[in-house]
Amino acid sequence: MPTINITNLTSKFKINGKIAEELILSVLMAEKYDAKEISLILADDEYVNRLKLQYFDEDVYTDTITFNLNDEEEAVEGEMYLSADSISQNAQELNIKLDRECANVIIHSVLHLLGYEDDNPEQQQIMFDLQEKYLDQFDYDGILTREV
């Protein structure tokens, strides 16, 4: 069984680690991948933006950055940095529940760890279709809440 680490670096949102872990494990099982260790770090826009600038030399805000730490033939190992601010903004703009957008971003991040890319429209469509498939299959209610 892989180790799933959930860390919350923001005080504005609370992530339900149990639901997030179950979602990550469910996608890994559905995609038939072995994993060693995966870390999900929930942060704010500024934190994720600094990572994007440091590692990708891009000064842009994004909802997730994923670092794959394993070699190609090894069990999946990686880190997923999620911006709760961007997830919340996306949910508002798309007029969807915060839970759904958070689950969507987690699934997207796991797919990146598994080697899926989204550099062109064809790859984006493959990832979008998989995300929708898993969103329909898994329960993620209560995964992310805004702290008052």
Rg of Cα set: 14 Å
The tally of domains stands at: 1
Task: Give me the CATH fold name.
Answer: Collagenase (Catalytic Domain)
Shape annotation: globular
Total helical elements:
5
Can you put this structure into words, describing what you see?
There is one protein chain. By secondary structure, the protein is an alpha/beta fold. The chain has a single domain, classed as 3-Layer(aba) Sandwich (Collagenase (Catalytic Domain)). 47% of the residues lie in helices and 23% in strands. The protein has five helices and six strands, in the order E-E-H-E-H-E-E-H-H-H-E. It has helices at residues 17-30, 45-56, 84-94, 98-113, 121-137, and strands spanning 3-8, 13-15, 35-43, 64-68, 76-83, 144-146. A four-stranded mixed beta sheet has the order 1-3-5-4, sandwiched between helices. A two-stranded antiparallel sheet has the order 2-6. A hairpin with a 7-residue loop joins strand 4 and strand 5. Helix 4 packs across helix 5. It starts with a strand and ends with a strand. The relative contact order is 0.20. The model has no long low-confidence stretch (mean pLDDT 95).
List the helices and strands and how they pair.
Layout lengths: L2 E6 L4 E3 L1 H14 L4 E9 L1 H12 L7 E5 L7 E8 H11 L3 H16 L7 H17 L6 E3 L2
Parallel strand pairs: 1-3, 3-5
Antiparallel strand pairs: 2-6, 4-5
Helix pairs in contact: 1-4, 3-4, 4-5
